[in-house]
Design brief:
3-stranded mixed β-sheet, 17 strands, 8-stranded parallel β-barrel, alpha/beta, hydrolase activity, hydrolyzing O-glycosyl compounds
């Protein structure tokens, strides 16, 4: 097992559709990963990183009900295994295959759980998963902002997308656990805050601050606030659907991954419109809000900033985020990992993937020619400095991770058997008595 802190990066694998579904925004393609994946994995190791947020493109891999194309996936995951890089597997990142349509499709949760189980059976050495990435942001951008996928702008479409995304996540976790009983799930979810710009905006800001928790409340089986209960009931969720989430959470298998960017805090105006506020509270304050609500171990699963005209803005942001991580850790929040996202620069995130312009965004640890950026060198040094120090600084949860090359070790096999017995006992305890 690997004690201590999880330093990670990621390969950006967003795949939303725009322009009424006619254009697929495949970040792996835009960033050259399909051509340079071997080099990319080598760069991960050059940084001293053992953990990689990574997943195959869902629309290329899941080609029909119970039909899969594993060709690229087999090669890539074999190389991760060979290099002993532990993937945090991201199975659905902002989009679905054309044959499913979009997140309004009620068949999506069951279909996705089939895919998750098929993946776990094919790669049983994989332990860490983010089944559905940023459920809240996916629903928000697809159904309230009208930017991606279904491109709706209604509360009813938002609630429909949220309930389908969260149910897909829950069903996928259940399916994966049937194959890998000691699997751990890291919910990479955006941590948001809405600031009222004036007294007239207070009510709207409070509603938005309640809504930001909706995906995690449902995923973790937490009873939602009364205002949110009315909101979801008014917009198409049934009582049976709501009670399903209360009864079918897998919180004890989860680490709460929270993402924080400079754009995660918002000003709310009196007319209900929002715009970016910049950093007001910051990661430490907002993370404590989320931790107080869910009481789970935490991992900082995404952050970045553009390199900037001076060339040092990203480095300064890295230092600021790391200081926030240490602050919440020293305050007693069990934070177990940190991620600069992503390994390479990204493309078209300046328009939030709304426009297919081919604009390169200098957000990566490396540029798209695979040359290291200043923030990459700074992150490599940070990892080297802190890797051995952190486990001894304070009492911290030790995450029971089995690295790929340890999968067949006798102790790892015993751990899976123990997890399977524990899971079965838990299922038996929750099963209603026979009449």
């Amino acid at each position: 097992m690997v004690p201590g802190f999880i330093f990670a990066t990621g390969i950006e694998n967003s795949i939303p559709t725009i322009q009424g579904g006619r254009v697929r925004m495949d970040e792996m393609e835009k960033c050259g990963h399909y051509q340079h994946w071997r080099t990319d994995f080598e760069l991960v190791q050059e940084l001293g990183i053992c953990f990689l947020r990574y997943g195959p493109p869902l629309y290329r891999t899941f080609i029909g009900s119970e039909r899969y194309d594993w060709s690229f996936c087999d090669e890539a995951f074999a190389e991760l295994y060979r290099r002993n890089i532990c993937p945090i597997v991201d199975l659905c990142h902002f989009g679905v295959p054309d044959w499913i349509g979009n997140f309004q499709n009620p068949d999506f949760p069951d279909l996705f759980s089939q895919y998750a189980e098929a993946f776990a059976l094919r790669y049983p050495w994989v332990q860490l998963y983010t089944p559905v990435n940023e459920m809240f942001i996916c629903a928000l951008f697809s159904t309230l902002y009208g930017w991606w996928n279904e491109q709706e702008t209604t509360d009813r479409a938002f609630v429909t997308a949220i309930k389908h995304l969260v149910k897909a996540n829950v069903l996928a976790m259940k399916a994966i656990l049937r194959v890998r009983p000691d699997a751990l799930f890291i919910q990479s979810e955006s941590s948001e805050y809405y600031h009222a710009e004036s007294p007239k905006a207070v009510g709207t800001a409070e509603l938005m601050n309640a809504r930001r928790f909706l995906s995690l409340d449902l995923n973790y089986g937490r009873r939602i606030d009364s205002e949110m209960y009315e909101y979801v009931m008014d917009n198409g969720m049934t009582r049976e659907e709501y009670h399903y989430f209360l009864a079918n959470h897998l919180k004890h298998h989860c680490i709460m991954g929270n993402d924080y960017y400079l754009t995660n805090e918002h000003l709310v105006s009196a007319d209900g419109m929002t715009h970016a506020s910049g950093e007001i509270f910051g990661y430490a304050v907002i993370t404590r809000q989320y931790h107080e609500r869910y009481r789970l171990p935490v991992m900082h699963t995404e952050t970045n900033l553009s390199q900037g005209p001076k060339g040092d803005e990203a480095v300064l942001w890295l230092r600021k985020e790391w200081a926030n991580v240490l602050r919440v850790r020293n305050d007693g929040v069990p934070i177990v990992g940190f991620t600069w996202y992503s390994l390479t620069d990204q493309v078209d995130w300046d328009s939030a993937l709304r426009e297919n312009n081919g604009n390169v965004n200098p957000l990566g640890l490396y540029d798209l020619n695979r040359n290291i950026r200043a923030v990459g060198a700074a992150y490599r040094q940070l990892i080297s400095d802190w890797r051995q120090v952190l486990p001894t600084q304070s009492v911290c949860l030790q995450v029971p991770i089995v690295m790929p090359n340890q999968y067949s070790e006798p102790w790892a096999m015993r751990s899976r058997q123990s997890a399977e017995r524990t899971g079965q006992a838990s299922a038996d305890a929750q099963r209603p008595p026979e009449q």
